[in-house]
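Summary for the funding panel

The consortium committed to producing paired sequence-structure records for every protein in the target list. Below we show the first two records in order, beginning with the earlier of the two.
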Amino acid sequence: MAGTRAEQRAATRAALLAEGRRRFAADGYHAVVLADVAAAVGVTKGAAYHHFASKAGLFRAVVADVQHELGERVAGAADRHDDPWERLRAGCRAFLAAGSDPVVRRIVLVDAPAVLGWDEWRAMDEDSSARHLAEALGDLVEAGVIDDQPVEPLARLLSGAMNEAALWLARSQAPAPDALARTEEALDRLLAGLRSRTDRPS
């Protein structure tokens, strides 16, 4: 019975997360009512509060899940390449492209910074996609593709630039059809400036 109860609790939590994710992505944080989320999955409001304490708690858990998936998407794009430089480019491009995903756009890029606050949002970002960026830059410094330098400030500068670009793309009500392509071109020019002069293509 204990195992069954644990499984039921896990299933309830997963159902609340899935429904919360769907509603936060479709309607935005402020339009979602926790009691409605609970009713939609057939549990009481008390059960929802038991698992997440508040609507903000549910939202925080949803953001963490989406951030984790985004980090996996970035890592997966990078892992399709053997060359360290192409790994960096592919990961950065995957992060920018994720802004076109309605779930990522509304939950992670638009609502999360406002609801959770910049510091918490940045900390969650660092635990997901930003961590992969720092690792990629560290590999490039070690390989001599980027001149020897402290990786952390470089990673923060590049992460900040990409977050700003992703936020701009996400918040644009009607971005130009080639907005992502032009942003990727700008990113390539920015990245090219990081390469050691001895490693730049002739």
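The next record, for a separate protein in the list, is shown here:
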Amino acid sequence: MLLVQRADDGQWTPVCGIIEPGERPDEAILREIHEETGVVAEVVRLVRVNVAAPVTYPNGDQCQFLDHDFLCRWVSGEPMVDDDESSHTGFFSIDQLPPMVPRHRRRIETALNPADTVIMSSDMVSPDIQEVR
């Protein structure tokens, strides 16, 4: 599993990022992987689409992210810190992952769980929003 340790808070996470204008989600993850780690990867499949909880910034602006989780496969390259967003990067075996927040561990478990469908989920706490398979 390719992981990065964030420079801002020290958390270990799968590679994450934000889509650039005009970019598809599958293109964005491959770009982010390469930018953050120097690794070239290919998308195997989309595994989950998640509605993240709303975010309110100090200036009062609000937004809500839509996460797309992909299972990707290494093509070439050795992991290295390739930008200022990460302090460390590397491959980890599934049974020796570094400590990470539960939502990132769930992302990894979901990606490695063979499924025929994409999981639709939400971080929103509401009785009428449920995970759909």
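Regarding this second record: Confidence is low (pLDDT under 50) at residues 127-133. The chain is about 20% helix and 35% strand.
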